[in-house]
Design a protein that fits this description.
2 domains, single chain, Rossmann fold, 13 helices, alpha/beta, disordered N terminus
């Protein structure tokens, strides 16, 4: 493979403290929402990629060939994401793309990647990204449909049959709302109250009051991500509704607890990853070595707590570099085939096994049902 001098990052370099790369053999592209409304997701993703590239190159790269990362900050704007994806393909000549912090940016990037026949690994949750299967598109987070199933599985175990739903109207919230409605009946659960809010709203007490006053509501679920669920959580506590409260995997990070406040978040349940409860994993848990190594590397480098979203980027990079190593070449077509042949690869989010009909590669066992207690993540009973 030809050695080429390229920048490690464009646009985001200054904010991440990146430097110009030395001669590099394998060029990977990324479009991440490191600033803007999804920055709490994208910032750790960008930092994770920086850390992993540095680690891999220090260890000799892949077969002696270094990785160079071309990284753009799309600020959560789907139009910018499309522009950057096009630039990554046409100007930067990358062999694969990681990114799409949000569903909207992922859909923009995958359109470009599919046309260019370049492997793309998304970091967003919506099922639409990989269902139906697109030949060159994969993703690392669980789907919103799986999150609904995991939550309803837990609710069913608690004996709940009627719930209230309060969902964000953004792409993630609307998608998960639809998926939850579609699978609720499979678990004997009826959605008896259904409210929505604009993610930019500063108060959701009106919607929560309607849910509280609806007969038959035994628990409440909030599909959403960003700052909206934190506001809903604070309002929920202010109204002293007193019913079990569930959030989505879209807020599975310490940042959510900080935004909502530990007191307001107390008792909130949600499906999350092993990464959030690394210290509670059994020694024989297949994910423990990966989770603890990433946690130590990220926290040691940044001085900030590790989180689910950085873990999505970790797994995307791991899947991609593992595929390149197995393919023995950095040709996009060979990388794509090797990703699809991945099996039993333990990451921070779960253990991945892709097939031609499954470009997520995770099942419900990858989720851990978590509960916030004393401002910390614990395993829910």
């Amino acid at each position: 493979m030809k050695k080429t001098l390229i920048p490690v990052a464009l646009g985001l370099a200054a904010s991440l403290g990146l430097t110009t790369a030395a001669l590099a053999d394998i060029r990977l592209g990324a479009s991440i929402s490191a600033t803007g409304p999804a920055a709490f997701l994208g910032d750790p993703e960008a930092k994770t990629l920086e850390i992993l590239v540095e680690q891999l190159n220090a260890a000799g790269g892949i077969g002696g060939e270094n990785i160079a990362l071309v990284l753009y900050d799309d600020a959560g704007d789907p139009n910018k994401a499309r522009t950057f994806a096009t630039r990554l393909v046409e100007d930067d000549e990358v062999v694969a793309i990681i990114g799409g912090t949000t569903t909207g940016t992922s859909m923009s990037i995958l359109a470009v990647a599919e046309d260019a026949e370049i492997p793309f690994i998304s970091l967003a949750g919506a099922i639409d990204i990989i269902d139906p299967v697109k030949r060159h598109t994969f993703k690392t987070p669980h789907t919103d449909r799986m999150a609904c199933q995991k939550i309803f599985e837990h609710m069913q175990g608690q004996g709940f049959t009627g719930i209230g739903l309060i969902s964000g109207t953004d792409g993630f919230g609307a998608s998960m709302q639809a998926q939850c409605k579609d699978v609720a009946g499979d678990f004997g659960i009826q959605i008896v109250a259904d409210e929505t809010y604009d993610p930019k709203d500063a108060d959701m007490t009106a919607q929560l009051t309607k849910i509280r006053n609806t007969a038959g509501v035994q628990a409440v679920l909030n599909p959403g991500f960003g700052q909206g669920p934190s506001i809903v959580t604070r309002n929920y506590r202010q109204l002293d509704i007193g019913l079990p409260f569930y959030q989505s995997h879209g807020v599975a990070s310490d940042g959510f607890i900080e935004l909502a406040g530990a007191d307001a978040a107390e008792g909130v349940r949600l499906p999350g990853t092993a990464l959030l409860v690394a210290d509670l994993l059994a020694d024989d848990d297949a994910q423990k070595p990966v989770v603890t190594a990433y946690k130590a590397a990220f926290e040691g480098k940044t001085g900030t707590p590790v989180g689910t979203f950085g873990g999505y980027a970790h797994d995307a990079f791991m899947i991609l570099t593992d595929a390149i190593a197995r393919a023995g070449t950095a040709e996009p077509a060979a990388i794509r085939d090797a990703i699809e042949a991945t099996t039993g690869l333990a990451g921070t989010t779960g253990i991945y096994s892709f097939t031609a009909t499954d470009h997520l590669g995770l099942d419900l066992s990858a989720f851990r049902m978590l509960e916030i207690s004393g401002g910390k993540w614990t395993l829910a009973e």
